[in-house]
Amino acid sequence: MSDNRVWSYSAVLMGSPILLKLFSHDEALASRVFSLIKQYEDLFTVNRADSQVMDINHAAGHHPVVVSRPVYELIKCAKAASQLPDSAFNLAIGPLVKLWRIGFKGDSVPPADEIAARLRITRPQDVILDDASASVFLAQPGMEIDLGAIAKGFIADRVRDYLHQQGVSDGLINLGGNVQTLGSPQGGWTIGVKKPFAAADALVGSIEVVNKSVVTSGTYERYFEQDGKLWHHILDPRSGYPLNNELDSVTVISTDSLDGDIWTTLLFGLGVEKGCSLLRQRQDIEAIFVSKNREITLSSRRQFRFTPLDASYRLTD
Ligand code: ADP
Ligand code: MG
Ligand code: MG
Questions:
Q1: 95 lines ligand 1 (CB under 6 A)
Q2: Dihedral through CA 245, CA 251, CA 253, CA 255, nearest 10?
Q3: Average pLDDT over residues 87-93
Q4: Which ligand 1 atom is at minimum distance from the Cα of 217?
Q5: Is ligand 1 within 6 A of the CB of residue 147?
Q6: Is the CB of 243 under 6 A from ligand 1?
Q7: Is 211 left (phi over 0), alpha (psi -120 to 50) or beta?
Q8: For ligand 1, what atom is nearest to the CA of residue 176?
Q9: What SS3 class is residue 232?
Q10: What pLDDT is recorded for position 3?
Q11: Ligand 1 in contact with 46 (CB < 6 A)?
Q12: Closest to 257 measured CA to CA, from 221, 295, 226, 284
């Protein structure tokens, strides 16, 4: 039975608070959704010793590992994104992520020679795939796949598909940075765009979407300060250092949250101007760039309505 009341369900999974919104009171469905998320987390995590991705990493330089289809397909998609021209996305970034330890205890700027050494074992072409056996082989010892930038998007899409299959017409899943929506209650779902480096509930604006994913990546999500500089968790696979440009955050509106995840990272690497010009060729992907100088740039606004909420930010589109 569906009514106009929104029911919220929450859990902590993948190290984040997860929020599910439904228009029916259905504890059983909510707990099935949370266990689906948990199952995928168990396949993809690199924050524990045992997962299919960790099996691949442990076998680096030794032998291929056969994985389940979802893991294989996600890795295949991540490799393709990593090999786009001048891509800031790299699925083999693991050794650098582990070196920087950003957001974990004891994080500090690593020595330059260590960064250079790790760069040599982060090449996407050294991730060798075999479609027939669904196996993954990391050709260099020490290589590590890290799906931290896209696992949430993939999982958000699976939750959407599951809810759809269960007959849910209106719903929302928020995996912390990744929001995927079904339907259009009262004309659309309203989703906030966070104000960088401000209180958790402070917003620079909000958008209204129908049947869309909204993904935000921000430098303010995880970082540390050293030598008067801010070192955040989105690394430039070309330099081995955090991506350093005019941006504080990128929000991507798309149908699939997996695309949102890949594009936030690609656009972070490109910056506002190049990013907007690339998006002119894509009807299906739109972005909101929030810059350090307090400018908000919309690449276009076909799939959403934007409402500015902070007078100290200037909207430029
Ligand atoms: P958020 O944590 O805000 O969702 P992202 O979605 O961009 O941000 O994911 C960041 C995570 O992705 C990092 O913590 C790390 O595990 C991994 N990562 C960092 N830099 C890259 C990169 N250039 N390409 C792919 N994955 C990355
Ligand atoms: Mg993310
Ligand atoms: Mg991303």
A1: no
A2: 90
A3: 98
A4: 3
A5: no
A6: no
A7: left
A8: 4
A9: strand
A10: 58
A11: no
A12: 284
Per the CB < 8 A criterion, the answer to whether 138 and 61 are in contact is: yes
Tokens representing 212 are 């869309």
What is the pLDDT at residue 1? 45
Query: Per DSSP, which regions of 102-246 are E strands?
Result: 127-130, 135-138, 171-174, 178-182, 189-194, 203-209, 213-218, 223-226, 229-232
242 Cβ inside 6 Å of ligand 1: no
Whole-complex ipTM: 0.96
pLDDT at residue 2 above 60?
no
Nearest CA to ligand 1 atom 8: 217
| C-beta pairs of 113-118 under 8 Å, 24+ apart in sequence | 115/240, 115/241, 116/240, 118/240
Q: Give the atom of ligand 1 at the shortest distance from the alpha carbon of 82.
A: 24
> Which of 120-124, 153-157, 174-178, 267-271 has the least mean pLDDT?
174-178
Residue 111: phi and psi, rounded to 5, are: -60, 145
Q: 209: burial class by Cβ within 10 Å (0-12, 13-18, 19+)?
A: buried
Residue 185: what residue type? P
> What is the C-alpha separation between 284 and 108, in angstroms, rounded?
39
- Closest approach atom of ligand 1 to CA 178: 4
- How many A from CA of 163 to the centre of ligand 1? 27
CA of 6 to the centre of ligand 1 (A): 32
For the whole model, what pTM was predicted? Answer: 0.95
* CB 171 within 8 Å of CB 182: yes
The residue-averaged pLDDT of 260-286 equals 96
Task: Tell me the torsion sign for CA atoms 188, 313, 289, 194.
Answer: negative
Q: What is the pLDDT of residues 171-229, one digit of tens each?
A: 999 998 899 999 998 889 999 999 999 999 999 999 999 999 999 999 999 999 999 99
When computed from its CA atoms, the radius of gyration of the chain, rounded to whole angstroms, is 19
